[in-house]
Amino acid sequence: METVFAFAEEKMTKTVNALKNEFASIRAGRANAAVLDKIRVDYYGTPTPINQMAAISVAEARILNIQPWDVSTLHAIEKAILASDIGINPSNDGRVIRLVFPQLTEERRKDLCKEIKKMAEESRVSVRSTRRDCIDKVKKMEKASEITEDDLKDAEKKLQDFTDKYIKEIDKVVEEKEQEIMSI
Questions:
Q1: What are phi and psi of 97, to 5 degrees?
Q2: Chain center to CA of 169
Q3: Which of 24, 41, 126, 133 is deepest in the core (most CB within 10 A)?
Q4: pLDDT for 164-175, tens place per residue?
Q5: How far apart are the C-alpha atoms of 184 and 179, rounded to whole Å?
Q6: To 10 degrees, what angle do helices 2-24 and 106-143 make?
Q7: Facing residues of 98 across strands?
Q8: What is the spatial distance between Cα 41 and Cα 53, in angstroms, rounded to a whole number?
Q9: 64 within 8 A of 57, measured Cβ to Cβ
Q10: Using one digit for the tens of pLDDT, what is the confidence trace for 47-88?
């Protein structure tokens, strides 16, 4: 039965971490290298992440510098950024690409908050789904007489506690991201 608890906790932790990674890639008006994480550049026929081809640094609060180690890849990186959905036009001076993050409008901030809430709800559903799967496993163990009815009740309570803990963590992460977006 401990393996069921370990599985539940691991899966719920991964769900929260995935949500945090997803939130890191949301552009909130500040320069953040995480917005480039999903962008792949065609580098000699291989889709390669930008952070493996260039040094990425935050020059100012709203300016991101991308300095490729191989200057010949400058145009490929610029092309990949333009083709992506981050909505920022890169400026290229021949050595460095600069991404200037515009100030967010009030309407765009509200849209981002809606998007964040939608992602959070998907994560909550995933956590609840994990709980349901684990409870099913424990019920099967009880039917097979591997555990007692009291053990089943204890396991259900423990799984519900895990679920509550991770949903609170998701809510906390959402609240922090919303404050970040609305305060810029």
A1: -100, 130
A2: 14
A3: 41
A4: 999 999 999 999
A5: 9
A6: 170
A7: 65, 91
A8: 9
A9: yes
A10: 888 888 899 888 887 888 999 998 888 889 988 888 887 778
**CA-wise closest residue to 24 among 116, 149, 143, 108:** 116
Q: Quick one: tokens of 167?
A: 């949903």
pLDDT of residue 27: 63
Q: What is the pLDDT of residue 21?
A: 86
Tokens 């559903």, residue located: 125
Under 8 Å CB-to-CB from 26, ≥6 apart: which residues? 35, 112, 115, 116, 177, 181
CA distance linking residue 178 with residue 160, whole number of Å: 27
DSSP state of 46: E
pLDDT digits (tens, 9 = 90+) for 116-152: 999 999 999 999 999 999 999 999 999 998 888 899 9
Tokens of 92: 């290229």
